[in-house]
Design goal:
- It is a single chain.
- The chain has 305 residues and is an alpha+beta fold.
- Helix content is 23%, strand content 34%.
- The strands form 2 sheets. Strands 5, 6, 7, 8, 9, 10, 11, 12, 13 and 14 form a 10-stranded antiparallel β-sheet that branches. A 4-stranded parallel β-sheet has the order 2-1-3-4, covered by helices on one side.
- Helix 2 runs parallel beside helix 3.
- The radius of gyration is 19 Å and the shape is elongated.
- The termini are far apart.
- The C terminus is likely disordered.
Length: 305
């Protein structure tokens, strides 16, 4: 079949009018809506089965994430028209926002990036457990609908007193860390909402995932970490420890919820996370991976930061 298929979430935070979206996408694009029962995976699987050259996801990070597994390892490329309350992948790639991005779809130099998988589900930007998942879980739905990602500021303030949980982290089959942690965060890209570069050295095409384990559990400690991130200064090792790897296994003494690209999942004690190198092709004008030069040729085998 070939051609372009657009997957549209009509209820995303910044959802466009259908007529405006069709006009922006241009002629010859097959527009398929997501549903409550299928947020995008089924529509994308059908597009791949139809041998589409390009899938344009029109929505937020949740819609993009729903399409990842169906696109991974295929010959069908991804472009994004960011229309959600959160557009982390698009912003990390440096893409235009809103309907203006439609004109760039399929007009770039193809860019291959890694994706991560956590407990069998794909993510593009980040996943984690502890503070970040609690913040997402606690964000007021009504406020998020009105002011978007700024609602997470309210949730962040509610969760600054974070319970520490005994956590063991194994990296590439070897023990790395056992500590009392408030959060374990794994990143493919570097930047989270608000432009905070949690993983300033992360590169999405190096075949590795970056890991940060935090012991911050008071407002003062969280502020100290955030301030050092903003100023790109070294972090105190008693608050944050870092590593990189291809496969990360996290075991927690107490079950906690986890999140992937901002989507919450039920509490669990075990997280199995791995990278799928060069699994996704982005074809969009202006798309670029964050972080400068690639480490892909180096293939670092380190398991300590």
């Amino acid at each position: 079949m070939g051609g372009t298929v657009a997957i549209w979430n009509p209820v995303s935070g910044g959802a466009a009018d259908e007529a405006d979206l069709r006009a922006a996408l241009g002629d010859g694009v097959d527009l398929r809506e997501t549903t409550e029962d299928d947020p995008g995976q089924g529509q994308t699987e059908q597009a791949v089965a139809d041998e589409a050259d390009l899938v344009v996801v029109c929505g937020g990070d949740g819609t993009v994430r729903a399409c990842l597994d169906a696109l991974a390892g295929t010959g069908t490329a991804l472009a994004i028209v960011p229309l959600g309350t959160g557009n982390l992948l698009a912003s990390n790639l440096g893409l235009a926002t809103g309907l203006a991005a439609a004109d760039d779809a399929g007009r770039g130099t193809p860019l291959r990036i890694d994706i991560g998988r956590i407990n069998g589900e794909a993510f593009a930007v980040m996943a984690g457990t502890g503070f970040d998942a609690a913040m997402i879980d606690d964000a007021p739905a009504g406020l998020k609908a009105r002011i978007g990602t700024a609602a997470y500021v309210v949730s962040c303030l509610r969760n600054l007193h974070t319970r520490l949980v005994v956590t063991t982290v194994e990296v590439d089959g070897r023990p790395w860390l056992r500590t009392r942690a408030s959060m374990v965060l794994v990143g493919n890209f570097g930047t989270v909402s608000g432009g905070l570069a949690v993983f300033p050295d992360a590169e999405p095409d190096d075949g590795l995932l970056d890991v940060a384990v935090s012991a911050a559990s008071t407002p003062r400690q969280w502020l100290a970490w955030s301030w050092r991130l903003l100023r790109r200064r070294p972090e105190p090792p008693d608050l944050v420890q870092r590593t990189r790897g291809r496969r990360i296994v996290v075991t927690q003494q107490r079950a906690r919820p986890y999140e992937l690209d901002g989507e919450l999942r039920p509490a669990t004690r075990l997280l199995e996370i791995e990278v799928a190198p060069a699994a996704l092709t982005i074809n969009q004008k202006g798309a670029s991976r964050a972080g400068g030069g690639s480490r892909a040729d180096e293939q670092k085998d380190e398991t300590t930061a």
